[in-house]
Design goal:
Number of strands: 5
Largest sheet: 5 strands, mixed
Family: Belongs to the thioredoxin family.
Helix content: 25-40%
GO molecular function: protein-disulfide reductase activity
Structural class: alpha/beta
Distance between the termini: 44 Å
Keywords: Disulfide bond, Electron transport, Redox-active center, Transport
Number of domains: 1
GO cellular component, one term: mitochondrion
Strand content: 15-25%
Pfam family, one: Thioredoxin
Radius of gyration: 14 Å
């Protein structure tokens, strides 16, 4: 619990817009960010000029640990045409309720602030590529 609180404080103290690579993850993932709060979600997801993939996940979710990196990799391949927001349902229960997330992982495709597509569970890379191409209109 103390470790989780320390991590939360670290993330809250990080400057907004800090790419995930600043936390030691691999470069090229700047198209992925962790949602900090409802206001951040509104600014960076709902008001985004680009399509957004929203990954609702949890630390304790095994399938989320498989899907998350796979989805990040596929989003990075889209070369900036789409961004990915990661929402931990334990930290942001209000967003999970608002977007009717009843199981994790749940992934939403959002365009112009509206949910245009959604899936629950794990997908392989071909399925994720088709999901992303549909979202960006390729």
């Amino acid at each position: 619990m103390a470790q989780r609180l320390a991590l939360r404080r670290l993330l809250l103290l990080a400057p907004r817009g800090t790419p995930s690579s600043a936390f030691g993850t691999s470069a090229g993932r700047a198209s992925t960010f962790n949602v900090q709060d409802g206001s951040d979600f509104q600014d960076r997801v709902v008001n985004s000029p680009k399509p957004v993939v929203v990954d609702f996940h949890a630390q304790w979710c095994g399938p989320c640990k498989i899907l998350g990196p796979r989805l990040e990799k596929m989003v990075a391949k889209q070369e900036g045409k789409v961004v990915m927001a990661k929402v931990d349902i334990d930290d942001h229960t209000d967003l999970a309720i608002e977007y009717e997330v009843s199981a994790v992982p749940t992934v939403l495709a959002m365009k112009n602030g509206d949910v245009v597509d959604k899936f629950v569970g794990i997908k392989d890379e071909d399925q994720l590529e088709a999901f992303l191409k549909k979202l960006i209109g390729a």
